[in-house]
Amino acid sequence: HLVIVHAGKKRAVLDTAGNVVVPPIYDKIRFDSAGFIHVTDKKICGVLRADGTVLIPVAYESVGDAKEGRFIVYDKKSGRYGAYDEEGRVVVPIEQREMYSYCEGLASVCRPDKTWTFVDPEGNFLPLHYRGTNHFSEGLAAVKDDTNRYGYIDKTGTPVIPCVYAEARPFSDGLAIVRDGTRRYGYIDKTGTQVVPCAYTEA
Q: Band of the pLDDT at 94, cuts 50, 70, 90?
């Protein structure tokens, strides 16, 4: 068990025997749910292992919590995102314009060419080129095509529901909220069938 203590304006981490695990050199320290130690020094972030050794260098504007075994990092100097694994390896090059947390094994990412696709935990990108992508939920993800309309794809990148909606939200319990061109909302199932017509001002 580890505890965070204050030493003047700095923070440190001790074990229950009083041994110093992380010296008092950081402005902020917190634990994430996976047991990693997130540290900040002069607004620059990194991650340490539970034994105090460096997992992710203290070099980033932000480092997200480990989700599905991957940390999303943002490098302020380059303005780019990437991802580390729990072994401290860069698995997604820090050259992405935007990147979101992994959901169901894939992360939504904006590539250097400004197109959106998905990347798996090992850094393999699906060969897709959309104007926007949402996270996967119940095996499907909403995507925006060149006409600025939304539809859904599966995890192989195969279109499942055509891009015909002005808005498309993640699936929950087999249904997703969609909005048509008349600014009316309804619900569709995973086959694309409207189970509640787009006839409502809110949903």
A: very high
